[in-house]
Amino acid sequence: MAPVTHLQIEPTTRCNFTCGFCCGRAMSQSDLDFSTFEQTLVAFPHLTQLELQGEGEPLMHPRFFDMLRLARSRGIAVSFITNGSLLSPDAVRQILDLGVEKISVSMESADPESFRDIRGGKLEKVLSGIERLLSERATRGLSRPVLGLSVTVLKRTRGHLAGILALYRRLGLDGGITLQPLQRMAGYTQTYTDGMLDQLLSDAEADEVWVQLRANREIRRIQAERASNAGFHDDLMSGWSPSQRRCPWLEKGIYVDRDGFATACCMIKDRTQALGQLGVDSNEAILARRAALRTALKAGAIPAPCSGCELARFAVMSKLELFRFALSGAKTRLRSRSLPVHP
Ligand SMILES: C[S@@+](CC[C@H](N)C(=O)[O-])C[C@H]1O[C@@H](n2cnc3c(N)ncnc32)[C@H](O)[C@@H]1O
Question: Taking burial as the number of CB atoms within 10 A of a residue's CB, which of 178, 198, 237, 255 is the most buried?
């Protein structure tokens, strides 16, 4: 089996925002030990891509930049996902000094009131951090990190995409857009309030999100313009399409949480479904459990830890269901001609 080349690791569960859909708010609030970070890099010696990402704000880890420095010294490309509120002048300087491949800023709405309501923080602060980083990057004549947006789609924000695309253009972002429906996996939904449960998308609405990503003219233009294969997510997902019945995570990636528990990906929150814990279980045992998940998925069964996952859902769709999905993509592509397009 191909070695693990893509690692996501959780620096912390602490956060300065209060997103109602974030299961991190219901978790114990703690940081990854630097020694666990070092141990994880040793455990997976073939890493090419690292993403500092978990259920907290990565920039709040007191040794965030030491992690970045260590990974870079080993030639590993580093990305991270952030709420964008802590891009201070000093953080921007260190990010540019150390060399980051991609930063994804999370955003469900470009409307300041909705943003504040959903995330519990100020959009204005996020925007000034993004502008600071882009301006300093330009002053230094650098092309990295590319800056993109990570968009979670709630029922109430399905109509907010056009505003987000307009903001993307206005800011001069270049890292592309990822869209994901509000998570429906049990590890997340069990932490939702009734109000948040009402925000879940139906299967058809979730399909519409995936279809938008592939068919919306403006999104396609943005994705085509972004620096190709920049960052963890692009690299991990490159070449994947829904009809392939496979999960790139089980082929190339692994997730390690702040306590060293390894799971097939960051969406698996139940530790009883973990592949093992670094330093407690052997690396061989962890990788063997991961291989078993891959074998099960290939055989057409969704493994228990992957229940509710969107990629696994595609992996076991019948040919007819995949055909219907492709058809809805073609229809949306036609409809998207009338969607707003920004220069
Ligand atoms: C867990 S957050 C943590 C990183 C950082 N604090 C931030 O806000 O980006 C990482 C990404 O996962 C997304 N996310 C978190 N909870 C989610 C959920 N329940 N459903 C879908 N996406 C979710 C966030 O919107 C964000 O883009």
Answer: 255
